[in-house]
Specification:
The chain folds into two domains: 267 residues, 3-Layer(aba) Sandwich (Rossmann fold); 191 residues, 3-Layer(aba) Sandwich (Rossmann fold). It is 37% helix and 19% strand. The chain is built from 18 helices and 17 strands. The chain has a nine-stranded mixed beta sheet with strand order 3-4-5-2-1-6-7-10-11, sandwiched between helices. It has a six-stranded parallel beta sheet with strand order 14-13-12-15-16-17, with helices on both faces. Strands 8-9 form a two-stranded antiparallel sheet. The protein is elongated.
Amino acid sequence: MYIVMITPEIAPAAKVGGLADVVVGLSRQLIEMGHAVDVIVPMYKGMRYDQIEDLHEVYGELWVPHFNEWRAEKVFEGKVAGVKTYFVTGGNYTERDNIYGYDDDLFRFVYFSRAALEFMFKTEKRPEIIHCHDWGTALVPAMYYDLYGGLGWNDARAVFTIHNTESQGLCWYADKLLGMVGMNAKNYHQADKMRDDAKHNCINLMRGGIVYSNFVTTVSPTFASEIRGPESGRGLHNCLNVYSAKVGGVINGIDYEVWNPATDKKIAHNYSAETFVEKYKNKYGLREWLHLADAWKPIVSVVTRLTHQKGLDMIKHAIYSTLEKGGQFVLLGESPDPKVNADFWRIKNELENCPDAHLWLGYHEDLAHLIYAGSDIFLIPSLYEPCGLTQMIALRYGTVPVVRETGGLADTIFDVDHSGRGLANGNGYTFKDANAAGLDSALGRAIGCWYDYPDTFNKIAENGMRFDYSWKNPAHDYQNIYNFIKAK
């Protein structure tokens, strides 16, 4: 079938987070399965143009409504990681260095959504599936059915994927926002459409995506369940319960070509589940890079953005707890919040002379790969985690995850002691309570196993390497969803 992804991000050309990886990973797997997939994304000034192959103009004057005028935009075509991608200009809306973070973000992405649909309409692209991602493209299903249905284009089906409920596209100036692209706000500012359930003076773009799409997916089955409650739903829970019959969770995958310890050129030594003992040569390489002591100790690592969601207090506690339990600790990450960065710089300076800890405050792609390969234990103490990718990468590299049971972490990591799967099928350690005691209950078991039962620990690590969290299974799930809504 023919599928078009409309998205604010695509990796590695325009990436902020996991959304970009999902778009390219899912698209590549669907193409491998025989489907035709195009991606449409804004043409940001600050994109990684070096990650786009054969970029060239394909449409010179795409007229898009903008308040009381029509603006002429351009469309360029190129390939990103092998996926055919269309880049739509947006005047001053896309002449930005960053993807998000501007006061007019709502206008920027609503305008892009209309431009993407207008491009498909004008070029007579008629996909069977229009797949929209997160709040930035949440208005597409309503636009498609209400604006283009009357023009004879109404045979496509819309899928809307919620990657996170933290940002939903709340807007109290609906008349201006929707009017910009030729939509009458009075038709949408209603309780059964886009009116926000809590803030009745606002429309909620993500709510519109839920109401108007033919199917709503989230990035893990557990998160699909969690967002039907107030804590994770963040105001969308009532709407999601009303439309629960068309809501489902599909766990994300990771790119097994990029994340493959057998071929990874960014690590010190390649290995596989069959040559697992070779993994430990990367431990020496990691210690050499970060000037850690060469001691018979497990390395506990964290690779993350330092945000509230990731459990900052538990990460800080884990640094000292690991050292007390006889381990070494490595952190790679930074925060968009200067206060959080300052706090971790304080800890880094405090531990400057400690031979068993290193905090790298920033991001380094090569170092990230080596940390996955060279660590023994990988910690993810998230307060909430819609899916999570790092635990899957850790498994791929034979590094045992210690995670909090939430969202996609609960769907992918199975405690060797408490999940009922036992040593034969367990792949990590989990904890429920989002506090120091909860974390220590799992981290202590992992470090204890490393010291006291090394053969058992290696068995858990090798188990993880044999789990398949590639895009193969998720892509088949999406194919089933596409076929299901096509038949309705």
